[in-house]
């Protein structure tokens, strides 16, 4: 079989389960190709996540909302994210309903059953978005959603084999061996599919293996014998990997994130983040992990509220419901007690709105007026239209160039001090946020990724401290390179390139393990 001189084509990365590693593998492949000069874009037909990002729609110039994982993958590929990379985004507001975002803008609200009917009209938009990217880039690496073997949802599938069959995409299935049962999951994934879908499953990839990969050789040969499909490689467990995640599965343990030791003579600083049931954009706190001596933990109880140096209430897709949850768990009372003792509190977006006096919501919860925690002199009224923006400005005397806004809530400030100037000029009268004593609130996500502002916030919390010099942007790029290095070192990249260029060819799917030549194309 002739080697492609340069890759042009596409590939679907599916997974045995959610959180099997689809997002990171897609990012790693995108980064690996981009480092070799290949024009590559990520694509995910349908995403369900409250962790989103704001980009610009190139067709209209308006702000657009996509899954944060796809924005991360675009950054790994070295390109600007746009809504075609995630044409359908579902943002759960409860266990039964979600807001449907189409090409970056709110489109409808749907429950699980009505969404199955809605898929029929979304399908054309999904395929148009994919075709547009495929015409613009040499390679499009698609990420599936959940498992491709959701047999109850296969008829109207948009994100997995429905897409793969409509565009004849070779599909690789990644499984997380750290959770166990990966080979049964590989075999079951193929066995439960109808023959036309089985023909698209071309290879497996084992993810998150700890130890000597040679120990897996007998299993890799057996799964090849049973399924007729090779395993393209075994990716190691990459410790301390942090990239923008798609959902909050990684937060479920609500334990502390490993912190770098504090410099000599500098006291450690603790940050407790309230893990709301419908938390959104929890990646706001990722940048704090870079700071030596800063330990971040998540809580679903009053534990840690009083003792922390800073308590952070993050964004949420269900502001009123999550405020009720905080009250039912005793967290709200713990925050009020903390405030009475002068403890530092920061609210971001929905968390900011909760800290205010009142919330008028006829959009998300439709319950009308509710009382907030009353710690900031602000009132919030929810609007039907969603604000999507990429502001820049200053806060606490430091520049902010990394912020973005995603919210229905319109906040009116009637007291306190302004927190952020929403312009490059610190004297601007266009303001966001509010400061009152030891309580800060802002609608701006992503502000902590601006290194100077993050340092200023820590000084506001704990007093003067040496600047660490941590650079968030450089650290993030280093994570992308770790993924690309793992792809290059541990996967059969020649076989991967054939799948991208040639599609799900039976002769490739039946190659014995290790027979594909590893060489530069």
Automatic annotation (TrEMBL):
Gene3D superfamilies: 3.40.50.880, P-loop containing nucleotide triphosphate hydrolases. Coiled coil: none annotated. Keywords: Cobalamin biosynthesis, Glutamine amidotransferase. GO terms for biological process: cobalamin biosynthetic process. Residues 12-242 form the CobQ/CobB/MinD/ParA nucleotide binding domain. InterPro entries: Class_I_gatase-like, CobQ/CobB/MinD/ParA_Nub-bd_dom, CobQ_GATase1, CobQ_synth, GATase_3, P-loop_NTPase. This is Cobyric acid synthase. It comes from Actinospica acidithermotolerans. The lineage of its organism: Bacteria, Bacillati, Actinomycetota, Actinomycetes, Catenulisporales.
């Amino acid at each position: 079989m002739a080697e492609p001189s340069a890759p042009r084509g596409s590939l679907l990365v599916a997974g045995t389960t959610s959180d099997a590693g689809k997002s990171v593998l897609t990012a790693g492949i995108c980064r690996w190709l981009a480092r070799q000069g290949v024009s590559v874009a990520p694509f995910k037909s349908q995403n369900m996540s409250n962790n989103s990002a704001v980009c610009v729609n190139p067709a209209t110039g308006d702000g657009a909302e996509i899954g944060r994982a796809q924005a991360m993958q675009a950054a790994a590929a070295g390109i600007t994210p746009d809504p075609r990379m995630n044409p359908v985004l579902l943002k759960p507001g409860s266990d039964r309903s979600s807001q449907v975002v189409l090409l970056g803008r709110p489109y409808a609200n749907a429950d699980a059953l009505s969404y199955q009917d809605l898929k029929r009209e979304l399908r054309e938009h999904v395929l148009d978005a994919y075709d547009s990217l495929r015409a613009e880039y040499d390679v499009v690496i698609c990420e599936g959603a959940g498992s491709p073997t959701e047999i109850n949802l296969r008829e109207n599938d948009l994100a997995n084999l429905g897409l793969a069959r409509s565009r004849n995409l070779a599909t690789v299935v990644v499984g997380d061996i750290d959770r166990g049962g990966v080979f049964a999951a590989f075999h079951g994934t193929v066995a439960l599919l109808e023959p036309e879908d089985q023909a698209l499953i071309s290879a497996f990839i084992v993810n998150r293996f700890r130890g000597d990969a040679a120990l897996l050789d007998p299993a890799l040969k057996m799964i090849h014998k049973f399924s007729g499909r090779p395993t393209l490689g075994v990716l190691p467990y990459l410790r301390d990997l942090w990239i923008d995640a798609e959902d909050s599965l990684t937060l479920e343990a609500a334990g502390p994130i490993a912190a770098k030791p504090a410099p000599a003579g500098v006291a450690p600083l603790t940050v407790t983040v309230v893990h709301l049931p419908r938390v959104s954009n929890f990646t706001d706190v990722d940048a704090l992990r870079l700071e030596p001596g800063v330990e971040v933990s998540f809580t679903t109880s009053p534990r840690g509220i009083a003792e922390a140096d800073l308590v952070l209430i993050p964004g949420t897709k269900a502001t009123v419901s999550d405020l009720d949850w905080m009250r039912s768990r005793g967290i709200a009372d713990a925050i009020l007690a903390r405030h009475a003792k002068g403890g530092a509190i920061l609210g971001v977006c929905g968390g900011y709105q909760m800290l205010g006096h009142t919330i008028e919501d006829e959009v998300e919860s439709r319950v009308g007026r509710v009382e907030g925690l009353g710690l900031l002199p602000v009132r919030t009224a929810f609007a039907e239209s969603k604000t999507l923006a990429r502001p820049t400005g200053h806060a606490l005397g430091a520049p902010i160039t990394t912020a973005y806004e995603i919210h229905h809530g319109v906040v009116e400030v009637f007291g306190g001090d302004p927190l952020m100037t929403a312009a490059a000029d610190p004297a601007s009268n266009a303001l966001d946020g509010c400061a009152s004593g030891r309580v800060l609130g802002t609608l701006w996500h992503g502000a902590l990724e601006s290194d100077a502002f993050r340092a200023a916030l820590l000084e506001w919390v704990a007093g003067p401290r040496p600047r660490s010099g941590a650079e968030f942007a450089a650290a993030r790029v280093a994570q992308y390179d770790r993924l690309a290095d793992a792809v290059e070192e541990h996967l059969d990249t020649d076989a991967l390139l054939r799948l991208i260029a040639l599609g799900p060819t039976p002769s490739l799917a039946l190659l014995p393990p290790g027979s594909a030549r590893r060489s530069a194309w």
